[in-house]
Specification:
alpha/beta, eight-stranded parallel barrel, 11 strands, 14% strand
């Protein structure tokens, strides 16, 4: 049984990764319904929070049905990070997660996200200060290192644990790799197998089939899997992994009717949370996966991502339901 602080998260929990413009409340709700054990918010700028920037503050919205939920923040300035912790606490999350892994240039250039992998001492100092500044469990998401020649993740994880970090999620790529090449889980297993480690070690990167999740659990011995891209437009992935764990068999994929129903709910919740314009635009990235692999779907998908009126989008989803009702995967 893995525990983050005092929170039981189950045997080999599946965690929804924090993804910018993806891991919002509507999508987190769908993933939770479909078996995600822990969900994380989109990553939130500490500088944005203390400036009361609307987009950052909006990302603090969490709901009871999501729990346990972690709010993830990033930054490289100690004072800003500590002030943002106080703002985050007011939203009453279960966990505060620090992003030390985002490889995006605009984040890294400020020394935040994966940029901090160039300064491990600062990474440890920030974590320690935040642990002391809150009663909530503080966790970390990071990468193997800045580049292949600077991988010190076993030492880094141990130092983070020693200053009070309650779990660590490690993406099996360096910052230099971005999202290219294959994720390497061997160094993550080395962290887990370090005799001094006693906090959960979660693996992240390329968990895109139930078999890969089994491999992460059984071959690499990790405590859980953090799932990102495989869940975009496909919240069923969590339940499919759990079904495979229990039976060794693949769960039947969702029918067209189920896909359309969930896509509609997703859009409804997004419009309700973000407003009509943003709700429509930010749901578009999910349609590719909602209807992936369906022959002749392309013209419908093209219309879904170029249509601005909600009633028209819902109409296209109804058309997909009627046109492909008998489709089998």
């Amino acid at each position: 049984m893995a525990k983050i602080g005092d929170i039981d998260v189950g045997d080999f929990p599946l965690l929804l990764a924090p993804m910018e413009d993806v891991s919002d409340p509507p999508f987190r709700a769908l993933c939770k319904e479909q078996g995600a054990d822990v969900v994380y918010t989109e990553f939130i700028s500490s500088e944005g929070l203390i400036r009361d920037a609307a987009k950052s503050v909006m990302k603090l919205d969490i709901y009871e049905k999501e729990r346990p939920v972690g709010i993830q923040i990033f930054g490289a300035n100690l004072d800003s990070m500590l002030r943002s912790v106080e703002i985050v606490e007011a939203s009453k999350p279960d966990i505060i997660d620090i992003n030390f892994g985002c490889p995006v240039k605009k984040v890294v250039s400020k020394g935040a996200g994966a940029g901090i992998l160039k300064d491990i001492d600062l990474m440890v100092k920030l974590t320690e200060a935040m642990v002391k500044h809150t009663h909530l469990p503080v966790t970390v998401k990071t990468r193997l290192g800045w580049d292949h020649d600077s991988i010190r993740i076993v030492e880094v994880a141990e130092r983070l644990q020693d200053v009070g970090c309650k779990s660590i999620a490690i993406h099996g790529r360096t910052r230099a790799q971005l999202y290219k090449g294959d994720a390497d889980w061997k160094p993550i297993a080395e962290v887990k197998n370090n005799q001094r480690m006693h906090i959960p070690v979660f693996g992240n990167g390329d968990v895109d089939t139930p078999e890969r999740a089994v491999e992460m659990r059984d071959k690499y011995g990790l405590d859980g899997a953090m799932i990102g891209r495989a869940s975009i437009g496909y919240p069923w992935f969590f339940n499919e992994v759990k079904h495979f764990f229990e039976t060794g068999e693949h769960k039947a994929p969702p029918t067209i009717a189920e896909r359309v129903q969930v896509a509609k709910r997703h859009l409804e919740m997004s419009i309700g949370w973000k407003g009509e314009k943003l709700g429509i635009v930010e749901t578009r990235r999910h349609y590719t996966n909602y209807f992936k692999g369906i022959r002749d779907i392309k013209p419908y998908r093209q219309r879904l991502v170029t249509t601005d009126a909600p009633e028209d989008v819902f109409g296209i989803l109804d058309e997909i339901n009627d046109r492909f009702a008998e489709y089998t995967f």
